Amino acid sequence: MIPLTTLWLPILLSAVIVFFASFFFHMLLPFWHRADYGKLPDEAVVIGGLTTAKSGQYIAPNVEWSKLSKEEREAHGKRPMAFLMVRNPGEMSMGTTLAAWFIESVVISIFVAYICAVTLKPGTHYLTVFRIAGTAGILGYAFDGVSLSIWYGKPWSATVKTIIDGIVYGLLIAGTFGWLWPR
Q1: What long-range pairs does 93-101 form, CB within 8 A, spacing at least 24?
Q2: pLDDT of 114-141, one tens digit each?
Q3: Burial of 85 (0-12, 13-18, 19+ CB in 10 A)
Q4: H or E stretch including 110?
Q5: Residue 159, Cβ density class (10 Å: 0-12 exposed, 13-18 middle, ≥19 buried)
Q6: Backbone φ and ψ of 52, nearest 5°
Q7: pLDDT digits (tens, 9 = 90+) for 54-75
Q8: Any idea where the domains of the chain sit in the sequence?
Q9: Which residues 6+ apart lie within 8 Å of 170 measured at CB?
Q10: CA separation (Å) from 6 to 60, 101, 112, 130, 150?
Q11: Which of 108, 115, 176 is nearest to 142 (CA)?
Q12: pTM for the whole structure
């Protein structure tokens, strides 16, 4: 096994590369993710209703489905449901959020490094490192939105874009690890 400490450069550099690739997708290609979020009808009414909600995760209606009568369940089944993430007030610090995203990228790169370190030897051919690191990187980035589409109704179009982003991030990690793999 290769010690993880010898892989500090590909870990950090791949996290930096993914960080900037993410910036590219979200800031320089605004059309790519902008359509992932729709505008609510009567948005002001919804925002007004959320003014006293604390930051958190909510579901509406929030009922105990097992305690509802058949008629009540049918009535709820004909109305919309909402899964909400609320920041109230808009408690978002871009610096803190970007730092957390970078830390997440470092953690994913550490796991990629671990998988590579226990499966590959020093001097392994670039394409072999690329294949293993890329697979692990893609798994780390690409599929988190699938469960949200399955369980919460996140639009599949947004999930497909997240998968594409994750594949690109995984391939960037693969290239970085292949390039900097110990000889």
Answers
A1: 98/19, 101/19, 101/22
A2: 999 999 999 999 999 999 999 999 999 9
A3: exposed
A4: helix 94-119
A5: buried
A6: -100, -5
A7: 888 998 888 888 888 889 988 8
A8: 4-38+92-180
A9: 134, 135, 136, 137, 138, 139, 140, 141, 142
A10: 50, 24, 13, 17, 40
A11: 108
A12: 0.86
Contact 179, 126 (CB under 8 A): yes
Tokens 């978002």 correspond to what residue? Answer: 92
Structure letter (DSSP) for residue 26? I
d(Cα 36, Cα 159) in Å, to the nearest integer? 9
For residue 86, give the nearest of 60, 63, 54, 59 by alpha carbon. 54
Task: Supply 156's token pair.
Answer: 């599949």
Using CA atoms, how far apart are residues 14 and 174, in angstroms rounded to an integer? 8
**The two structure tokens encoding residue 44:** 């002001």
CB 55 within 8 A of CB 84: no
One-letter amino acid at 26 equals H
